[in-house]
Amino acid sequence: MQRLKDEGIEVVIYEPGLQEANFDGFVVIQDLAEFKKASDLIVSNRLDAELADVEEKVYMRDLFNRD
């Protein structure tokens, strides 16, 4: 993530369980709706039902929606 930041790309982290506003120098967002609005691209392990409305923004390794 540091390489992205070094290139001038803003990285935000969605983690509702983390109460700190920053993690390792990156902004932490606890509200999913706010995170979806703030993100142009979402990197995820898999597509969850909560991300279905922003599916076009989601990049995941689970290409066949089964893992």
Describe the overall structure.
The protein is of the alpha/beta class and 67 residues long. The chain has a single domain, classed as NAD(P)-binding Rossmann-like Domain (Rossmann fold), CATH 3.40.50.720. 18% of the residues lie in helices and 22% in strands. The chain has 2 helices and 5 strands, in the order αβββαββ. It has helices spanning 2-6, 32-38, and strands at 12-14, 22-23, 26-29, 42-44, 58-60. Strands 1-3-2 form a 3-stranded mixed sheet. The longest helix has 7 residues, at 32-38. It starts with a helix and ends in a 7-residue tail after the last strand.
Search tags:
67 residues; alpha/beta; Rossmann fold; two-stranded parallel ribbon; 5 strands; globular
As for the number of domains, it is 1
Helix content: 10-25%
CATH-level-2 architecture: 3-Layer(aba) Sandwich
Using only CA atoms, what is the Rg?
13 Å
Can you count the helices?
A: 2
Distance between the termini: 24 Å
Order of helices and strands: HEEEHEE
Global morphology: globular
Spatial ordering of strands, largest sheet: 1-3-2
Class from secondary-structure proportions: alpha/beta
Q: Outline the low-pLDDT stretches.
A: none
CATH third-tier fold name:
Rossmann fold
Main sheet record: 3 strands, mixed
Quick summary:
It is built from two helices and five strands. With 67 residues, it is of the alpha/beta class. The chain has one domain: 3-Layer(aba) Sandwich (Rossmann fold), CATH 3.40.50.720.
